[in-house]
Amino acid sequence: MSFVRVCGLSELTEDTPKRVELDGTPVSVVRTEGEVFAIHDICSHANVSLSEGEVEDCQIECWLHGSSFDLRTGKPSGLPATRPVPVYPVKIEGDDVLVSVTQES
Ligand code: FES
């Protein structure tokens, strides 16, 4: 599993997702509740960028139809999305946020 630096920790604003691309994979990086999460940036229901949605209670909401995805598991909490979105491991090293997208596709 190879971790790649995606941004600095100080570049992340609490509860404001940041969209990055890793090897062509769009990833939403979210700092919330004292942790940093990385979730695939495309909703499992349609081609919508999750990083444009709101973050609350460790979930990110798809702005189009309102499904929320758990940032820890990628599971949707309600319809219309029924499939999970991949989540990726995150490492913090000093001020560097590193993400690995090689495990999931
Ligand atoms: S596109 Fe995300 S819930 Fe419909």
TrEMBL record:
Keywords: 2Fe-2S, Dioxygenase, Iron, Iron-sulfur, Metal-binding, Oxidoreductase. This is Bifunctional 3-phenylpropionate/cinnamic acid dioxygenase ferredoxin subunit. One of its GO terms (molecular function) is metal ion binding. CDD domains: Rieske_RO_ferredoxin. It comes from the Bacteria. It comes from Streptomyces jumonjinensis. Its EC number is 1.14.12.19. Coiled coil: none annotated.
